[in-house]
Amino acid sequence: MTDSAKPVGEMFDLARNIDVHTESQADAKEEAVGGVTSGLIGLGDDVTWRARHFGIPFTLTSRVTEFEAPHRFVDEQTRGPFATFHHEHLFQPTAEGSVMIDRIHLVAPFGPLGRVAERLVLARYLRRLITERGEFLARL
User: Fold this and answer.
1) How big is the CA angle at 72 (ends 69 and 76), to the nearest 5 degrees?
2) How far apart, in whole angstroms, are the C-alpha atoms of residue 125 and residue 32?
3) 52, 51, 74, 72: which is closest to 63 by C-alpha?
4) Closest of 97, 110, 114 to residue 11, by C-alpha
5) Residues 112-139: pLDDT tens digits?
6) pTM reported for the whole predicted model
């Protein structure tokens, strides 16, 4: 959850901006290499990302499957390293501006070994990544 002084609509647009996302993930050298590669994404749009996490290069394609401007959108992996990856972005007004809530459901590949990796490494890593990204958006 990220609190921001920005209004809901502004946070909504920052969260779906490919250029801002790329800037927020510069440490992972994340870049959009297919589909929508710049600007704002919307319903039905695909983005293919290339990045390096844990020192491992990977490619992931996601599609915006639900879109309720300016309060909610969902992107889901259509191709990539996870068995399932579903990311819901929620935006609510507050007295000070807005709050952005990220809900992620993922299933790692490789059955029981993947579930262990989810619990021991992936969940904590993604929480940190999402927190840092939210703070980045709020600071812009």
Assistant:
1) 115
2) 21
3) 74
4) 97
5) 888 888 888 888 888 899 999 999 999 9
6) 0.90
